[in-house]
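Weekly sync, protein design subgroup
Attendees: M.S., D.O., the rotation student, P.L. (late)

Item 1: inverse folding check
M.S. brought a backbone from last month's batch and wanted to see whether the design step gives back something sensible before we order anything. D.O. pointed out we never logged the input encoding, so this time it goes straight into the notes. Structure tokens as presented (415 positions):
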């Protein structure tokens, strides 16, 4: 019955596994949804969705599959809406004339369940059997029966699961949207590697309990070194010019990285990395790129941020830097290649939408040196997975030499 929902989730990019789907079936067998569509909405989301980044897609899938289906809450809502109008108040006298016998609570509840499940509800006044307003049936409102189930008369409305899905509170978590600082922190947290570091001054509660049990109940305190993030991150950021529209986004990435990594080094460049990088652009404080390569070991993970969109001469020519007074002895492409070979775990994050990349001459070249990902949530997730592995540039030194000497595009087109 629900297989279509599984297909709908998969078609919308929610990574649901068969194991998770079978777990949901087991939960339904145990009646954990309580025959409520709204309860099912939350139960299925907690079991099937592994990350809040997919909540929005889940909501869209839920809305699409269950639209038009009424939950029991919604059916009760309809009953309650119809009971808002007060009927005449002569049903108590009518009931006395009819000589109604008082039923036990068990009989009343059994009758109510039967009427409700069979859909015996009518927008009517009076009656002695179906759920309605007034009358002498054992269920309804504003009527009379010595023993009955009252519905309405000062009720609270239920929320609809479909309405909850339609509100889409988590639309900002869509993986294709650009990131805020909180989302960046969550994403970068996956790159952290926590290992024991420093003096053993932190109580290891689990081991303490285990050793105390082994010691016949006599307390045995066990201490361990605190777990610290051991990942070293080198962040190289393009600033100014065409990156100005993305300055706030890059600032958020920088802020998130500073909060997640104690060993974070960061430098700035403009368009491409040349003989020097900036430690402080405002004060023109520089560090030679050669010193940067000597200072930091290959254990550093490197993230370069920039649109990689520039004139071909800026990337491929000696003295091609856009600054008139800056003379770079080595073309920028060679510096990028040296960084890629020095640091096996390196990626390039591009805030420019990926659909524009092929319209650029330089972006395809840079993406041959570094794996390039869009600066979106899904792009950052892919970049982090790449950083967790070691690799070498997909481009060879001979190819770079060919680009520089022949001024040829990597796809065969001339400039």
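Designed sequence read out in the meeting:
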């Amino acid at each position: 019955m629900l297989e279509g929902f599984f297909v709908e989730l998969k078609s919308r990019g929610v990574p649901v596994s068969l194991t998770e789907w079978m777990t949901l079936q087991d939960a339904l067998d145990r009646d954990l949804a309580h025959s409520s569509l709204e309860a099912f909405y939350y139960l299925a989301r907690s079991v099937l969705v592994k990350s809040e980044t997919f909540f929005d897609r889940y909501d869209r899938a839920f809305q699409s599959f269950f639209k038009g289906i009424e939950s029991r809450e919604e059916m009760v809502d309809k009953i309650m809406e119809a009971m808002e109008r007060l009927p005449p108040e002569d049903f108590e006298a009518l009931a006395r004339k009819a000589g109604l016998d008082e039923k036990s609570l068990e009989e009343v509840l059994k009758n109510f369940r039967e009427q409700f499940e069979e859909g015996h509800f009518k927008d009517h006044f009076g009656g002695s059997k179906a759920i309605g307003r007034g009358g002498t049936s054992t269920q309804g409102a504003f009527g009379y029966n010595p023993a009955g189930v009252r519905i309405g008369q000062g009720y609270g409305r239920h929320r609809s699961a479909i309405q909850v899905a339609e509100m889409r509170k988590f639309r900002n978590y869509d993986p294709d949207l650009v990131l805020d600082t909180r989302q960046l922190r969550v994403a970068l947290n996956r790159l952290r590697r926590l290992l024991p570091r420093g003096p053993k001054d932190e109580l290891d509660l689990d081991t303490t309990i285990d050793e105390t049990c082994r010691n016949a109940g006599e307390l045995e305190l066990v201490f361990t070194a605190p777990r610290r993030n051991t990942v070293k991150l080198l962040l190289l950021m393009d600033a100014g010019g065409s990156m100005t529209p993305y300055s706030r986004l890059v600032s958020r990435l920088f802020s998130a990285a500073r909060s997640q990594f104690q060993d974070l080094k960061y430098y700035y460049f403009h368009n491409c990395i040349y003989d020097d990088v900036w430690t402080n652009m405002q004060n023109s404080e520089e560090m030679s790129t050669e010193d940067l390569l000597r200072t930091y070991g290959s254990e550093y993970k490197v993230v370069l941020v920039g649109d990689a969109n520039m004139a071909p001469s800026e990337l491929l020519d000696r003295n091609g830097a856009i600054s008139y007074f800056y003379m770079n002895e080595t073309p920028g492409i060679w510096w990028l290649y040296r960084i890629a070979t020095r640091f096996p775990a390196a990626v390039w994050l591009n805030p420019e939408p990926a659909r524009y990349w092929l319209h650029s001459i330089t972006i395809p070249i840079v993406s041959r040196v570094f794996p390039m990902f869009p600066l979106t949530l899904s792009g950052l997730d892919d970049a982090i997975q790449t950083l967790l592995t070691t690799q070498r540039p997909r481009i060879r030194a001979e190819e770079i030499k060919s680009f520089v000497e022949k001024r040829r595009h990597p796809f065969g087109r001339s400039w």
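Discussion: The CA atoms of residues 200 and 225 lie 4 Å apart. The chain has a mean pLDDT of 75.
Action: P.L. to compare against the previous round before Friday.
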